[in-house]
């Protein structure tokens, strides 16, 4: 009986947290999370593309890598070990921006459902752009839209980076074949 009462209270608490989010806020959070999923897919497939794997091989490589952070680290490792300095220099700020946006996405995707009214839980600062890191109901629509646009921008930049990097990766592959 005590457990069922606790569950009901928790459920009621969640409804109260949800009531602090307008339909527009929920829509913008949804847009941000969908854009994030596209970026996450791009990170996963970039590894296979740069290695010139077909779709089945690429999925076999990336699906067992469960966490996003591990996939990003694998892509970073490939760039660090095989790309020219120019590409390493271009990838580092891109990776940092992806990591920053990952923290924002996680804050918005997970924290609103666990909000307790304790402001201390949300007292992080996400420099360099100073986007807020507080409960979703405190984000303005403009901040949510800007974060979603930033994710979309980074997705396009990563796509362009992979396209630019491919010829150099092919060149390295050919050199390796000739040397061995």
Could you estimate the helical fraction of the residues in percent?
over 70%
CA-based gyration radius: 20 Å
Beta fraction of the residues? under 5%
**Could you tell me the mean pLDDT?**
77
Shape: elongated
Succession of helices and strands: HHHHHH
- N- and C-termini, Cα separation: 71 Å
Q: How many helical elements?
A: 6
Derived structural class: mainly alpha
Low-confidence segments: 11-15, 113-132
How many strand units?
0
Mind describing the biggest β-sheet?
Answer: none
Topology:
Elements: H1 2-19, H2 23-50, H3 55-62, H4 68-82, H5 85-110, H6 141-179
Helix pairs in contact: 2-3, 2-4, 2-5, 2-6, 4-5, 5-6
How would you describe the overall organization of this protein?
The structure is a single chain. With 180 residues, this protein is mainly alpha-helical. The chain is 74% helix and 0% strand. The protein is built from 6 helices and no strands. It has helices at 2-19, 23-50, 55-62, 68-82, 85-110, 141-179. Helix 2 (23-50) crosses helix 3, helix 2 runs antiparallel to helix 5 and helix 4 (68-82) packs antiparallel against helix 5. The N and C termini lie far apart (71 Å).
């Amino acid at each position: 009986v005590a457990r069922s009462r606790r569950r009901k209270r928790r459920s009621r608490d969640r409804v109260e947290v949800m009531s602090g989010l307008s339909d527009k806020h929920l829509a913008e959070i949804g847009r941000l999370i969908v854009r994030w999923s596209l970026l996450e897919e791009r990170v996963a497939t970039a590894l296979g593309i740069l290695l010139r794997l077909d779709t089945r091989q690429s999925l076999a490589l990336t699906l067992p890598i469960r966490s996003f952070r591990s996939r990003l680290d694998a892509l970073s490792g490939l760039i660090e070990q095989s790309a020219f300095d120019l590409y390493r220099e271009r990838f580092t700020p891109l990776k940092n921006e992806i990591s920053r946006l990952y923290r924002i996405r996680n804050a918005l995707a997970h924290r609103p459902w666990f909000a307790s009214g304790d402001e201390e839980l949300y007292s992080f600062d996400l420099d360099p752009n100073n986007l807020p890191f507080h409960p979703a109901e405190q984000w303005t629509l403009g901040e949510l839209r800007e974060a979603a646009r930033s994710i979309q921008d980074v997705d396009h930049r990563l796509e362009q980076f992979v396209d630019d990097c491919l010829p150099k990766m092919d060149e390295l592959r050919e050199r390796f074949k000739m040397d061995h």
